[in-house]
């Protein structure tokens, strides 16, 4: 295993899967607070360098996510970079070989679902990778779909954000634009609508647009216009890198609070948001619900009710982040990192 120079993680494993042409990256960022744990992302990438970079950055995000939540796990992430037109009949074989690789690591890496993978995929990975696999289906002994837990935490986070910006945690009539209606985005849309928010959404996937706009009656915003759409809260729930020097000047929201990992293109983008007086809920704080809810039940023996209480604490953690940022005149991102860093330097 080798670590790349630009990344401060512990190890990066790269394995080519000859049968499918896929490449597996497992990035172990930190085992300081516990075994490296994080989702398995499966998608196409521009090139292998981009896939590797994604694994590295996402694994770092997991380190901060667990630490900020005070959860005894370290940061890791896997990326399965698949070629275009991967034959669905070969997909399970890839997942099983990937599971065997997790098995080889003997507990140094634990995983769960992420973009492009499901609980059903976790069942397949667990055939060879158990016990190091979270978020399997209940029929296979897992706690199931993590996205509903992520959405629960995101709602709590949006409420804490609204309390800070508007002095009111109620979502009634709040205009929220959800970017990306995949598994987490869909669950966020449902929760926000139930809470009385005026939700609009955007997605690049035609099936998702049909489901939400045509069948669900959710107002749709063209993907190209989503950032400029006036709203109270923008909730990025698709892929990362949406907040950049190019996009931040165009935003017409009061706050950014959503589920996507790695929303900031560059660390300096946190300062750009602050200059525009847009309150940013750091992604690794607000989106921790899936990881905490599922892993808490499966690894720490929490009941569903206990998991709910713990995930809802994301609201209080964000309040701390906002208060610390204001007290020290720093960005919310820096404040959240400081909270996580304290735990990391304190040790397990
Ligand atoms: N996809 C989750 C995240 O990014 C990772 C996860 C899911 C970890 C389920 C453990 C269990 O936070």
Question: Can you tag this structure with a few keywords?
Answer:
348 residues; alpha/beta; 5-stranded mixed beta sheet; 12 helices; 16% strand; binds phenylalanine
Q: Quick summary of this structure?
A:
The protein has 348 residues and is of the alpha/beta class.
What is the arithmetic mean of pLDDT?
96
Distance between the termini: 25 Å
> Quick one: overall form?
globular
- Small molecules in complex: phenylalanine
Q: In which order are the strands of the major sheet placed?
A: 1-2-4-3-5
- Proportion in β-strands: 15-25%
| Number of strand elements | 10
The DSSP helix count reads 12
Q: What profile does the largest beta sheet have?
A: 5 strands, mixed
> What ranges have pLDDT less than 50 throughout 5 or more consecutive residues?
none
Helix share, percent? 40-55%
Q: Radius of gyration, Cα only, in angstroms? A: 19 Å
Written description of the protein model:
By secondary structure, the protein is an alpha/beta fold. 44% of the residues lie in helices and 16% in strands. The chain contains twelve helices and ten strands. The strands form two sheets. Strands 1-2-4-3-5 form a five-stranded mixed β-sheet, with helices on both faces. α4 crosses α9, α4 crosses α11 and α11 packs across α12. The longest helix is centred in the first third of the chain and has 22 residues. Phenylalanine (PHE) binds next to β3, β5 and α9.
What does the secondary structure layout of this molecule look like, with pairings?
Blueprint: E1 11-17, E2 22-30, E3 36-43, H1 48-69, E4 74-81, H2 88-104, E5 109-113, H3 119-129, H4 147-166, E6 175-179, H5 183-194, E7 198-202, H6 206-215, E8 233-236, E9 255-256, H7 269-275, E10 279-280, H8 283-286, H9 289-300, H10 304-312, H11 314-328, H12 332-346
Parallel strand pairs: 3-4, 3-5, 6-7, 6-8, 8-9, 9-10
Antiparallel strand pairs: 1-2, 2-4
Helix pairs in contact: 1-12, 2-3, 4-5, 4-9, 4-11, 9-10, 11-12
Bound molecules: phenylalanine.
């Amino acid at each position: 295993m080798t670590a790349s120079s630009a990344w401060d993680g512990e190890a990066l494993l790269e394995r080519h899967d000859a049968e499918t042409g896929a490449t597996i990256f497992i990035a172990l960022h930190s085992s300081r607070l516990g075994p490296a744990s994080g989702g398995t992302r499966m998608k196409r990438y521009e090139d292998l360098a981009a896939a590797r970079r994604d694994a590295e950055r996402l694994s770092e995000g997991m380190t901060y996510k667990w630490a900020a939540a005070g959860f005894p796990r370290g940061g890791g992430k896997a990326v399965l970079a698949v070629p275009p037109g991967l034959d669905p009949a070969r997909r399970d074989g890839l997942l099983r070989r990937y599971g065997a690789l997790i098995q080889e690591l003997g507990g140094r890496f634990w995983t769960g679902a992420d973009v492009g993978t499901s609980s059903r995929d976790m069942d397949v990975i667990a055939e060879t990778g158990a016990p190091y696999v979270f978020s399997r289906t209940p029929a296979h002994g897992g706690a199931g779909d993590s996205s509903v837990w992520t959405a629960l935490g995101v709602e709590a986070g949006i409420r804490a954000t609204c309390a800070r910006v508007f002095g009111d945690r109620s979502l009634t009539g709040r205009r929220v634009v959800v970017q990306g209606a995949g598994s987490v985005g869909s669950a966020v849309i449902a929760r926000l609508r139930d809470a009385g928010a005026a939700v609009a959404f955007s997605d690049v996937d035609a099936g998702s647009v049909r489901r939400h706009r045509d069948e669900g009656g959710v107002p749709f915003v063209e993907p190209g216009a989503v950032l400029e759409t006036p709203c109270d809260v923008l909730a990025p729930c698709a892929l990362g890198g949406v907040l950049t020097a190019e996009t931040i000047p165009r935003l017409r929201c009061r706050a950014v609070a959503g589920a996507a990992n790695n929303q900031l293109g560059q660390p300096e983008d946190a300062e750009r948001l602050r200059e525009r007086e847009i309150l940013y809920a750091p992604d690794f704080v607000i989106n921790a619900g899936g990881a905490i809810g599922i892993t808490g039940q499966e690894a720490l023996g929490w009941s569903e009710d206990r998991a709910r209480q713990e995930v809802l604490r994301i609201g209080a953690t964000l309040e701390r982040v906002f208060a610390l940022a204001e007290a020290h005149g720093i960005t919310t991102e820096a404040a959240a990192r400081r909270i996580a860093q304290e735990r990391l330097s304190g040790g397990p």
